[in-house]
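User: I'm preparing a small set of examples for a lab meeting where we compare how different chains pack in three dimensions. I only have the primary sequence for this one, and I'd like the structure in token form so I can line it up with the others. Please keep the answer compact; I'll paste it straight into my notes.
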Amino acid sequence: MSVQGAYTRDTVPENPSLAGARVTFWRVLRSEWRKLWSLRSATILLLSGAVVMVLFSAGVSFAIGSQAGEYEVKAPWFLVAQMGGLGLQIGALLVAANAVVQLAGEYTTHTAVSSYSAVPRRGLVYGAKVLLHAVLGFVFGTAMYALASLVSALVFNLTGMGSQSDGRMLNEALISGLYVMVIVCMALGLGALMRNTTGAVVTVAVFVYVISNVLVGLAFMGNKFVGWISNHLPTAAVDALRPSASLLSGATTEDIEAAGMTAVDRLATWDVWLTIGFWVIVPLVLGYVATVRRAVR
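Assistant: Understood. Below is the structure token output for the 297-residue chain.
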């Protein structure tokens, strides 16, 4: 068999070559880092996510501040926190799309064959991609939430309403980074499983945003089983960790309903972390199995 024939087979050899045996995880990670910024789509998607979050925060804050500024009431810190997270779901989806393009795009363009020929241990490549994009998602989510919250506070001040600050805003920013990381990990697992960029991104979007909102609506109608399911979806589980969510923990059902909201049972802390771990680990493990065992074409 010729060397060319060995690289054009349906499967890439699993046994490391002499070159592959010298490949380390950190070398693969550096290679993935360079590969990430070699694509223009990475810059476009990340910048788009940042712009969306800032515009959502600024627009809604301006609308609220313009109406409430004349009453000389400062915006409480948890209102600023909510404004900072208005565009977080869209921003997370754009960051996840960038991760999927980097992973599933290699199968679409058939560059995965050369990648796994250079690094026959496919788990190294998969692990490097997961670590790189998970950390990038956490950093992006934290930084962009902090920026959007700062813009919101500035807009409230410009409209004459003013705003309050609180140390708990830092926790809100870190939890926002955690949320983006969870969505990115889900998308990476689905991308490795489906090997299709569009399919993975659409699946995450439909599941996290469409199905979640439908279940939340049904839960507000009094269905406890549906409420239990909606509380164990990624968005609800991460939101349960937010300091602003604990503000309602001491309120009675009558107080919450009088404020125009619906009382929903909150998860215990251990249940929250177990739920988050499930939505991160299960997709990644399935993606790893698909990456290692399935043929590369």
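A couple of notes for your slides: The two ends are 18 Å apart (CA to CA). The first helix runs from residue 3 to 7.

User: Perfect, thanks.
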